[in-house]
Structures are given as C-alpha cells and as structure tokens.
Amino acid sequence: MAERTLVQAVRDALAEEMERDPRVCVLGEDVGLKGGVFKATEGLQARFGPERVMDTPLAESSIVAVAQGLALEGYRPVAEIQFADYSFPAFNQIVNEVARIRYRSNGDFGCPLVIRAPTGGGVRGGLYHSQSVEAFYCHVPGLKVVLPSTPADAKGLLKSAVRDPDPVIFLEPKKLYRAGREEVAEGDGALRRLGEAALVRAGRDVTAITYGYLRVVTLQAAARLQEEGIEVEVVDLRTLRPWDVETCLGSVRRTGRVAVVYEANRTGGFGAEVAAELAERCFESLDAPVTRLAGPDVPAMPFSPALEQAFLPDADRIAAGLRRLARF
Amino acid sequence: MTTTADALALGLSRDQALAAYTTVCRARALDDRRFLLNRAGAIAFIISPRGHEVAQAAAIAALQPGRDRFCLYYRDFAAALACGFTSAELMLSAFARADDPSSGGRQTPGNFGSRRRGVIIGSSTVGPQIPKAAGIGLGLKWKGEGALCYVSFGEGATSQGDFHEGLNFAAIHSCPVVFFCENNHWAISVPQPLQVAGAGVAARAAAYGIPGVVVAGDDFFAVYRAVAEAARRARAGDGPSLIEAQVLRLQSHSTDDDQRSYRDPGELAAEAEHDPIPVFQHQLEELGWLSEAEDRRIRAALEEEIDSATALAEAAPDPDPSTLSRHVYADG
Fold first, then answer.
1. Domain check: are A156 and A304 in the same one?
2. What structural domains and CATH numbers belong to chain B?
3. By CA distance, what is A60's nearest residue in B?
4. Does B293 lie at the interface with A, CB-CB under 8 angstroms?
5. Are A124 and A269 in the same domain?
6. Burial class (CB in 10 A: 0-12, 13-18, 19+), A202
7. ipTM beyond 0.90?
8. What integer is the mean pLDDT of A218-222?
9. Which residues contact B230 (CB under 8 A, 6 or more apart)?
10. Partners of residue B136 in chain A, C-beta under 8 Å
C-alpha cells in the first residue's frame, strides 16, 4: 500500500496493466515524451517504449479510430483524449463505430478499449477545458462510462476497464487529480468492479446520489447539515453506465428523500436519468419530490473566477438544496 | 493491350483471371436480381456496384484474403464476393434474414463483415474505416507477419476529415495499408468538381509522402498491377499507398435514388456504352483465356446460382424478435 493522488493512481493502474498484459498500449496527444498534460502517463514511455506509449497526431477522431483498429487486432489500447471537451471530434468514431461494432456485427466483432479523458471544471479551464460530457456517452448502448472520484476507485476501476471486453469511457475529474492522497492497493488487490456504487456516508434523512468532483462537495454539505441535525446519506455512483440502481433504490427506500447532485448541465444530464429511474421505481417510498441539484443550463463553465464559482455547485448551495428536501 | 506475357508477368494465372471474371459476373447478376426483387417489393434497399465490379475484383485478386484485412465500403459487392462471401450469403443480407453472416439482418446490405475472412464489419457513415484501417495496419506492423490492411471508399469519402487523419497516421508510421479510392465522380448527386479540389484524389498522396496513382478502373490488369505494387510495398515495410481507380457509376446511388433526375441524359447514355465487364471479357478473349462458349457457361451457371440463392434467402427465417437486445455487450 502506498499513498497516492488520483493522477498517480491512474498512472499506477496503467503501468501495472501494461506490465501484466503485453497487449495493453497507450496512445494520445502528448502521452509519450511529456507524459501527458496532467502527467497521467509520466514515465510510461521510458519504461515501455515509444510504440506501446505512442504520441499521436493532434486529431481525436483518428486517436479513437486507431485504437479501435488496434483492438480489432487483439491489442488492448488505452487512448487518452486530452480534455473530455475534445472528445467531440471523435464522437462519430466513438458512437457509430466503437460502441456499435458488436451489435452491428451480431456479436462477430468486439472492441475492448478504454478512452480516458479528464473531465469537469473548477480549475480555471474556461469553456473548453471544463465540460462534463458524460451524458452524451451514457446515452449510448454499447459503451460503459466510469467516473471515479478517489485514488483507490480510479486505480481499481481503470484496471477493470482495461480488462473489460467492451469499450469504456473513463472520465477523470481533473479538479481531484491532486486534491488529496489515500492508501491505494497494488496489483489485483486494487481491482474494483464496474457498475458498483459506494455508499460513502450513512444517514437516515436524505439520500444524495452524486459522482465525480461533486462527491467531495456533497460530503462537505452533509457534514454541515449534520450540525443542524439533518443526516444525509451519500452515494457515489462511480460507474454511470451501467449504474448501480439497486444500491440507490435501497438508500432511497430508507430515507424517502433523494437529490441527484451533478456538475453537468441540468437538462438532460445523467442525473436526470437517475432521477427518472428512481421516480419510476420507488414512488411509493418517496416523501418528497426527486430533486436535481446540478450545474446551470449555460453552454459551459466560464473562465472568470466569479463566473466559474457561479457555475459550480458549492457546499452552500448543495446544503440548501438538501435542507429544503429534508424539510419538505 | 495486355498480352499473355504481360498478364503472366504480373503473376496472374488463367485460373485466377477467370475466377475474378466469374466474381465480376456474379456481382452483376446478383445486382440485376436484387433490383428486380426491390422493384417487386421483396427487398427494401440496394446499393449497386454497377460499373465498379472489375476494379473491385482486380484489387482483391492482388491481395490475400484469409491473410490480409479488408475494410470495405457499401458499394463493394464484387470485393466482398472476392473475399469469400457467397451469393447466398449476400442474398440473405438483402432479405435481412437471421443467417445474414455480416449482421444477422441488423444492417442494410453492403455493410460486409466476417471475422474469419478478415473483413472488418462496415457501417453506413462515410469514411470512418479509413483511419481505422491505419490502426489495423499499425497492429499488423507490430505483429510483423507481412499482412496488410486494404481499405476502400468513394471519392466523396475523401472530403471527410477521417480521410486526412487516416492517411496522415498511416504515412507517419509506415503502416501496411492500401488505400483504394473507387472514384465514380458522383457522391449521390454532387459531382467531382464540387467535391474534390485540385488535381484529384491520388494527387493528395504527395502531401503525405506516399505513392499516389490513378488507374483506369475498367482495366483489370492495370488495377491488379497497381494494387500488387502497393501490396508489395506494404509487405516490405515501405508503408501505405493511395490508388485512385477511375470508374463509372452505371446505376443510381441506391434504389432510393434516380440519377436521371440530376444527370445529363447524353452523358448517361455515353457511360452506358463503357460498361467495364465487356472490356474485361474482351481482354480475356484476346489472351485466349476465355471463349464465347465458356462465357455462356459461366453466366448460365451464375443464373442458376442466383436462382437458388434467391430461393434460399426468400425461404430463410427472419431474426427472432427476442434477439433484439443481444450483443450490445459481451455478456449479453
């Protein structure tokens, strides 16, 4: 066990999987010589060589297409898209090609690959380095979507994603890359299964279902509400597709009140899907309306710190939302 | 004119040339039948290879199905047949039957796929197979077994960013890829002058530092020679090549299109006089490799083959609706 930040945990996961399986390779912009703009692949090229850790041209569509070609040849590529905002030039390759190849070939072909991308805001990245893109990919059957928020989850889930027979979009909250350290296991002991949520705080009054950076903020809000006598149960989804409906249902049946807390634009955000499913499945357990506490419906997170803060839900706003729900 | 010596110098035997000729005639006979079936309301949608067949069969004849990889596009019926698909299989696809080997009736016909044949399943968007082929080529290069990836597309696809990204990547890494453009000068209703700036598709190869050649798509031996040279380079580790085969689109884009509504009648009539199949037939006759009697025998056998393929496909079961959700993920 060693203390690791989230970005170090990502790097460890890649190194361990490359060590374990010679088919695993890494490709993307600046992942080689530089080791990635966030240093997630630092040292890997020196260790594994310029083919297994390949700097690609600045062209996201071909990064994904080449990764798919390698997967079709039996390799296990991990492609990095430098920022999730830049996955859109590869959208056709991801959605029409990678995600649908198994279905459109009636099971004859598969495409085991991982597309990693830093996601979310709060780092002064402005409109084009702060976006939350998960809803676009969660909409697509054939993809799995993972969004961890702790070093141990990042490592364990990335290792599982690399071993998964299907394509995985692996989104890393960049604001948490170096936000803290925790003990992270090594080797197979670090593995975490895809599709399992974590109940990260128990509480009997309100359920807050969250993921990514807002897990941290939601826990701050929950600690604050504790002082007011409101007990908040916090669930971190960790994997968004497939998401752990049962764990969420269990919590909501206990509390009767639920808010889905997410950073992305409110309308059509992944939290809207969670809210809809829960409303359908546990209506009889609810004592209050299923609520979304989400980013605003503006195009993206602005560069100005004042506007950035106005965009990003903070502990005050999340606590206010949860308090309203508790008192409903 | 191609002499026997020329043909033999290419490494082609009479049997290989006749097999390719049979493939060409098979593709045409299938196309004719599928149009009848479409007009009779029996099948939904067809894209025709008419005018492209000789170029397609020549290209695949110069390669090694079973060893190489093939990223075909939706007009590549003769190429698919040359890769090993049968008339019955393509008819099952036309009828969207459960036993369609490419997709079990899930995709429109022309999206060929067969892992055991090395034919990478296509999709219906234009051009995404081009950078994918670069990635397959990279994997083949790493394996170092001398196999290559062939990828085909129309000239319309060369307007996509994926065309540039694929050629650029393959050229940077000397991937063993043969880029084969079937330029019929029309992307549905948009003519080449509104599609391709500059001297043409092959000229773009210069920007990537790779060979780019233009060949007459109705000259079987010229196409074979160009693809064989590109394959030799690829297998030797010398990287990709771009070949532009000039072909004619002797049929509308698809059964949902009528090119008479936007093309000049005189031009259509003139092109109809330049069907590549009689040209190939004449070449084989000149070589003494094909007689009129043999040609009649081939075509008659194909008529029977298409009859039984049609009967088989008509009688074949549809996919079971309960399978709708299968193969979304590996475990389902």
1. no
2. 4-216+240-277+292-314 (3.40.50.970)
3. B165
4. no
5. no
6. exposed
7. yes
8. 98
9. B178, B211, B240, B241, B243
10. 69-70, 72-73
